[in-house]
Specification:
The chain has about 800 residues and is an alpha/beta fold. The chain contains 32 helices and 25 strands. An 8-stranded parallel beta sheet has the order 1-10-7-6-5-4-3-2.
Length: about 800
């Protein structure tokens, strides 16, 4: 392992050059289709050696070991479980190449790719199980002598986090993380580039960026978006254009000369590390390196910003931004109904409170599960797992237990805020390291030894002491929010003035500040009016955040008015928008787009729209027991609901996690009706035979499409993954499907699709064909005589049209 300081020092003076594609180079040098590249490379050592040597000679500073798919889940598909051994062999092959041929400043990165599965809360693999799985790969790479690590081609922010944590818990090696983005500029799971960067750089990634799925022109736009937020080096590895199939071979059309023409734009956009992905060759890297050598690196410079993130969105602000509202309602203290639900293990009310607060204008959501008779850690993890796929707002982890805080931060797929860390020695010693490890921000509560300082001088003393420890752990003032300590005016008339002094001191000394607003009016009538007045005074003194109920209209008027008068609302845009949504004669909370798009007309419909798996069963039983025909429930409520989810997905208002949640909710509801539908032909939409083609072990997309098709009433037979052509045809003869659907994720395996179609014609099977997968295009589908669907939603439409026509 190389000391990361060496790599960081190099990055100050040059744009580092990565290598290019490995898979296509392996194919050129004799790797057969359908084999496991990592196993084959470990058994044919001279081939990866030649590839590494070619890239080093072309100018690569860093070459990636041939270990992209050498994780347990991928290798087990080929009957191998010796993860550490295979990774060690492949890392040593790359290291041996360095020793033989290159200069002193060249390095080997252990290449870590995706598993092909989603990690909780987006999938069924437990997060800690994923971390353990990745640790096996990391150990093998370390044994083989890797200098650094490259986590790449990730579509799931939670899987990227699992891989990064696995590395950080074993070594301090320099780690690059690159995600793959769809044409609309988000990952398949809907995460924005900014949210990805904030989450990963806070968690300890040393460089972040993007690779694969796009050519240079498209990827450049992502880098340009990231640079203003980046505190670490940025990475780009574009493809050599998008793949085409010529004479049953996969070709990438962009030649090396054209590829290298983008070097200037990437350098000026702030790229610090660059290489190539699919289709790029040593010649691409040679010309790229030559061009990039002309430019000095633009170092990361984002400093005076406050950054938090959810699983999909970034929250970026500074001291001049408008007041940030932290929704306070998800807290069982004093809420009998919420207490009862949490004790029963239900989360319906939590979901409702989150939805309402987001719609009313909250910027963050505080979640607290502390109450007698409950397992707080288990409950807060359940809340996070329920909210993360849906809620756009970053979460505030509110607990006095370090164990609960750590469990929540470990599982949360974003950058969270801790509420709070006080000046007490035990809290500093336990919570600061936890916050630092998981990259969280925290609220600094200026109390010590259960003493609530009444004057600002004592509070400042505590703040300075905590900040001294925090700086040693890597925190800056932009990672900390000072609590002004609001006490009730009825018992301490001078208390509000001391709070305002604390807020003013925080502002003048470069900190953000916060207040729990409702405390000031405790015990007094007309509390909302007092709270609103105090909020305006606090904003005038520089307060940046407030813990409050965004559903209180008077408070939200005070917030927008105060932002305007404090010069934090340029051109009064936010104020005027709020007024337009809240006419003065009808003061109602603002109705923004929330995480759930509900109709309000039927609870079953709404459960499917919002992916509410918890309540769907009860609602379906209820309307069934009230006498509604099960066929009508399915065809008049459930199918229209799932089709509306498809519309939201097409409009990019929903992304893969929401689509899956809604589909699984419908599946759960359908299971209640199914026994009563048998014999009514209500599900006989058509028969579909589905398979991932031979040599391709990826089935995550196929499984989602099948779920959607079954929900819409198709009879789908799933043959699984890596299915031989002859087996597909054999089953087709028996099953007699209307449609044969084929999936492929890799350019090396998509060429099996025309084989299946040709054999079907030869055997006189007259089923229609539908194809899809990450590398498949409409043009490719047409060229082989098949119909194309890009995702599960489109597959339902295409399949319905094909069955109707047939």
């Amino acid at each position: 392992m190389t000391d990361k300081k060496i790599i960081l020092e190099l990055l100050k003076n040059k744009i580092l050059i990565l290598d290019g594609a490995t898979g296509t180079e392996l194919q050129k040098l004799g790797m057969p289709a359908g084999v496991c590249p990592e196993i084959w490379a470990s058994e044919n050592k001279e081939v990866p050696k030649a590839i590494h040597r070619n890239y080093l000679e072309a100018g690569s500073d860093i070459v990636f070991a041939c270990t992209f798919g050498a994780n347990f889940y991928k290798l087990s598909q080929y009957g191998r479980s010796d993860v550490e051994n295979i990774n060690s062999i492949l890392a040593q092959i790359a290291k041996d190449t360095l020793v033989v041929g290159s200069g002193k400043n060249t390095f080997v990165a252990g290449d870590i790719g995706p598993t092909g599965h989603f990690i909780a809360p987006f999938g069924e693999i437990d997060f800690d199980d994923a971390v353990k799985m990745y640790k096996r790969q990391v150990k093998g790479l370390l044994d083989g002598g890797c200098d650094l690590f490259g986590i790449e081609t990730q579509i799931d922010i939670q899987e990227a986090r699992a891989a990064l944590i696995a590395i950080k818990e074993l070594t301090d090696a320099f780690t690059i993380v690159t995600m793959t983005y769809e044409p609309q500029g988000r990952t398949l799971n809907g995460t924005s580039p900014e949210a990805t960067l904030i989450t990963l750089q806070s968690l300890g990634a040393d460089a972040v960026g993007c690779n694969c799925s796009a050519g240079p022109a498209e990827m450049l736009k992502i880098i340009e978006r990231l640079k203003p937020v980046a505190k670490i080096p940025l990475v780009a590895k574009p493809n050599a254009g998008m793949p085409k199939i010529v004479d049953a071979k996969t070709l990438f059309p962009m030649q090396a000369e054209e590829f290298s023409l983008f070097a200037e734009s990437f350098a000026k956009a702030g790229t610090n590390i660059m290489g190539g992905c699919c289709g790029t060759t040593p010649q691409h890297i040679k010309l790229l390196a030559k061009e990039l050598a002309k430019y000095k690196p633009i170092l990361p410079k984002a400093k005076d910003i406050i950054t938090l993130s959810s699983a999909t969105e970034a929250l970026i602000s500074n001291k001049k931004s408008g007041l940030q509202i932290i929704g306070e309602r998800i807290n069982p203290t004093g809420k009998k109904k919420l207490q009862e639900e949490l004790l029963e293990g239900k989360l319906s009310l939590v979901r409702k409170m989150a939805t309402e607060q987001e719609a009313a204008g909250a910027n963050l959501l505080d979640i607290n599960a502390g109450m007698p008779g409950i397992n707080e850690k288990e409950t807060i993890i359940k809340i996070i797992n329920m909210l993360a796929p849906w809620c756009k707002l970053p979460l505030v982890i509110d607990s006095s237990s370090p164990e609960v805080v750590e469990a929540a931060l470990r599982k949360y797929p974003g950058r969270a805020l801790i509420n709070s860390i006080s000046g007490e020695k035990e809290k500093i010693e336990k919570l600061l390291p936890i916050a630092a490890k998981y990259g969280a921000m925290f609220i600094l509560l200026p109390i010590i030894d259960n003493e609530l300082p009444e004057n600002v001088e004592k509070r400042i003393e505590i703040i300075k002491e905590v900040f001294k420890y925090a700086e040693k752990s890597g925190f800056t003032k932009n990672d900390i929010i000072i609590d002004g300590l609001v006490m009730t005016v009825s018992s301490s008339p001078k208390a509000p003035a001391e709070t305002l002094k604390t807020i003013r001191w925080a502002t003048e000394n470069g900190f953000s500040s916060i207040a729990g607003l409702s405390n000031v009016s405790f015990g007094l009538p007309e509390r909302k009016k007092i709270n609103s007045s105090f909020l305006s005074m606090a904003v005038a003194n520089g307060m940046t955040h407030v813990i409050a109920n965004p559903g209180e209209t008077e408070l939200m008027w005070a917030k927008h008015s105060s932002d305007l008068l404090a010069g934090k609302d340029v051109d009064a845009l936010s104020y005027l928008k709020f007024v337009s949504e809240n006419p003065l004669n009808n003061l109602q909370p603002a109705k923004k787009e929330s995480m759930e798009k509900v109709s309000g007309k039927d609870p079953v419909y709404d459960c499917i729209i919002s992916g509410n798996r918890d309540d769907i069963t009860g609602y379906v039983k209820d309307i069934f027991e009230k006498g509604m025909d099960p066929k009508d429930i399915l065809e008049k409520i459930m199918i229209p609901a799932i089709m509306h989810v498809g519309v939201l997905f097409d409009e990019k208002k929903y992304f893969l996690p929401q689509l899956i949640a809604s589909a699984e909710t419908m599946k759960k509801g359908f299971a209640i009706l199914q026994p009563f539908l048998e014999g009514k032909n209500s599900t006989a939409k058509g028969k579909i035979l589905f398979a991932t083609v031979e040599g391709d072990i990826h089935d995550i997309g196929k499984n989602i499409v099948i779920l959607m098709l079954r929900n819409y009433g198709f009879d789908v037979k799933d043959l699984g993954k890596s299915v031989p052509t002859e087996e597909i045809i054999k089953i087709a003869k028996e099953f007699k499907p209307n449609i044969i659907a084929l999936s492929a994720l890799m350019t090396t395996t998509m060429v099996k699709m025309p084989e299946v179609i040709e054999l079907a014609k030869k055997e006189e099977i007259n089923s229609l064909f539908m194809v899809g997968g990450a590398v498949v295009t409409k043009e490719w589908a047409t060229s082989i005589g098949a119909n194309y669907s890009k995702d599960g939603v489109e597959a339902v439409k295409v399949a319905s049209n094909l069955v109707e026509k047939k």
